[in-house]
Amino acid sequence: MTYPSGKLAYNPSIQGLRAIAILLVLAAHANLPFLHGGFIGVDVFFVISGYLITGLLVTEINNTGKLNFSRFYARRLKRLLPALLVMLGATAAAIYIFAPTTEHPAQASAAASAAAWVSNFYFIFAEQNYFESTSLVNAFLHTWSLGVEEQFYLIWPLLIVFACSLASKHRIVFLSAITLFSFALCMWLASRHPTQAFYLMPSRIWQFGAGALVWHLAGQLSEISARAKAIQLLTGTTLIVASALWIEEGTRYPDWVSLLPTLGAAACLFGISTTSDSVSSGPLARGPLRKRCTNQPSA
């Protein structure tokens, strides 16, 4: 559902899926029993981001015949930069007061990288594996995912403009090729350089691509039955929750197992997208889950 301005309509079901992703990440960081794999909430969020950003870009191109790049990037900065600066300032102050001075240089370097949205590269060069206890002492570890997302925003508009110049049937092929190439890269790096597979945007873009493919495929299909929608949502949420329960800190990640939360999020989005009543009903659009939740979950 879109508005003439090129914006996507607010969808409480997607907000509900976002809330689940954030709650899983919080559970993982709180070390709740049986939910150490809750960090896969970030994977879910990557799929959602690919879905929403692709919808925004394609809708604007369809409505206006072009994409206003400066306005797109300005919206991203306006949405994320103020909260990022507040977080960096507050965290830096807390580190200065409470952390040993020997930790200040590493924390400052990570903060500077986070401010430039490249902290994922910082953690690669610092050889800090996300799952090692030594990495957890860095107060800015959670900003790696924001770096990945912002780097995705830099290149994705260009790819979508090119995709929209193709015939409709070729767009799916083009996006599928990008997604499959990134997935292959991710699997290759996971077996040789797991830290790079975890932190690098090119090895994660397949998860954004999965969301983009859902947006395109759902738009080409007619409305599905309520039963089919329920099956898709149940399958999707089961895969996401099962991932969080099954994956442990010792699990090599991302690897083949990262397909579970990615496909789970894609299934939920597909069920949401192919029914006209998804904007106002459905289990993900009810209760506290439907509250607006626009921040990137940290992991």
Overview of the molecule:
With about 300 residues, the protein is mainly α. It has eleven helices and no strands. The protein has helices spanning about 10-30, 40-65, 70-100, 105-115, 120-125, 145-165, 170-190, 195-200, 205-220, 225-245, 260-275. Helix 2 (about 40-65) packs across helix 9 (about 205-220), helix 2 (about 40-65) packs across helix 11 and helix 7 (about 170-190) packs antiparallel against helix 9 (about 205-220). It starts with 11 loop residues before the first helix and ends in a 26-residue tail after the last helix. The relative contact order is 0.18.
Which key terms come to mind for this protein?
299 residues; single chain; disordered N terminus; globular; 0% strand; mainly alpha
Topology:
Layout: H1 12-29, H2 41-64, H3 69-98, H4 104-115, H5 119-125, H6 144-164, H7 168-192, H8 194-199, H9 205-219, H10 226-246, H11 259-273
Helix pairs in contact: 1-2, 2-6, 2-9, 2-11, 3-4, 4-5, 5-6, 7-9, 9-11, 10-11
**How would the global form be characterised?**
globular
Instruction: Report the portion of residues in β strands.
Output: under 5%
Mean pLDDT comes to 88
Low-confidence stretches: 1-6, 292-298
H and E order: HHHHHHHHHHH
Rg for CA atoms = 19 Å
Q: Give a count of the beta strands, DSSP E runs of length 2 or more.
A: 0
Structural class, from secondary structure content? mainly alpha
The number of helices is 11
**Helix percent band:** 55-70%
Intertermini distance: 30 Å
- For the report, how would you describe the main beta sheet? none
